[in-house]
Amino acid sequence: MARVGQKNTKPELIVRRLLLGFGYRYRLHRRDIPGKPDICFIGRKKAIFVHGCFWHRHEGCHRTTTPKTRTSFWEEKFRVNVARDRRKLADLERLGWDALVVWECETKDVSKLESRLVNFLSNEVDKKRK
Prior knowledge:
Distance between the termini: 43 Å
Number of domains: 1
Structural class: alpha+beta
Helix content: 40-55%
Order of helices and strands: HEEEHHEHH
């Protein structure tokens, strides 16, 4: 588990490649933004988090398993992760940012993911929210 990376994961690279293909420019892992989002669009005040289903407990996903050994340790770890995720999303919202969570399993269906990303970043969505 210690070798599992936090940055530049395969799902994150898939999302980044799609965004670059659409012509979007972004910043990575900004420490000055709550939650240190994986992808930030500073001018648009939008952030994208690419979450692993296992670590961030994607509800209903088959990848959301709990190890058989030291289950109490893992359950507590997962509970803290989920609480932190909620808190960071709320912090961003309070600052006027929009956030999108892309789950690891969602990166398998690229066409669905493309439309989700475009909808999140399009100007029509920005105008509707104002």
